[in-house]
Amino acid sequence: EVWRVTFESSTGGVNYTPLGAGTRIAGGWQLTGLALPRAQNVFVRARGYYATGRFDGSSSVTESVRNVYLKWDTTMTITSDGPDPSSVDHAVTVGFSLTSAGGTPTGDVTVSDGVDSCTGSVATGTCSLTLTTLGVRTLTATYLGDAIFNGSSDTESHEVFTFADVPSSHWAWP
């Protein structure tokens, strides 16, 4: 039985840096509180030590190496959706922002209420959504991620009326 495990990491698979000793848990060993590099290959080596000599106290080592690639997390935020409330079949401009501690993500964001959708780039931060379903809708902005960044999403409530449902106090005349 393995009685001690140490963990090490390497970005090239040759020179390893100690990460610490593992803690025994049900079904294995764990090491917590790591700060491994992101958006690059990292080799993690676990060395388990176990007794082999019955009486002389000798031990042997078993080793396992795994390649890990950790992406940066992202945070999606719907920053605006207007006008809200809106009228059915009229465009709503949805603003969003996507942030990450690992830099500026690129690519597209899709905004949907489950029926209608629009797509805008992360760089522009907006898309124009024409909603065709009446009532309170849940808008969801979704970034799927890429090779460097994990995906994320955010939701916002939005109400859609027919023009006849909007009280005259909400009418705007030029």
Outline the secondary-structure elements.
Blueprint: E1 2-10, E2 17-21, E3 23-25, E4 28-30, E5 41-51, E6 59-69, E7 75-82, E8 86-87, E9 91-99, E10 108-112, E11 117-121, E12 126-130, E13 135-145, E14 150-161
Parallel strand pairs: 8-14
Antiparallel strand pairs: 1-2, 1-5, 3-4, 5-6, 7-9, 9-12, 10-11, 10-13, 13-14
Short structural description:
The chain is mostly beta strands. 0% of the residues lie in helices and 57% in strands.
Poorly predicted runs = none
Main sheet characteristics:
5 strands, mixed
Strands, count: 14
Mean pLDDT: 90
Spatial extent as radius of gyration = 26 Å
How helical, in percent, are the residues? under 10%
Distance between the termini: 81 Å
Strand content: over 45%
Helices, by number, come to: 0
Derived structural class: mainly beta
Q: Give the helices and strands as they follow along the chain.
A: EEEEEEEEEEEEEE
Shape: elongated
Characterize the quaternary organization of these chains: single chain
* Largest sheet, spatial ordering of strands: 8-14-13-10-11
What does this structure look like?
This protein has 174 residues and is mainly beta. Helix content is 0%, strand content 57%. It has strands spanning 2-10, 17-21, 23-25, 28-30, 41-51, 59-69, 75-82, 86-87, 91-99, 108-112, 117-121, 126-130, 135-145, 150-161. It has a five-stranded mixed β-sheet with strand order 8-14-13-10-11, with no helix packed on it.
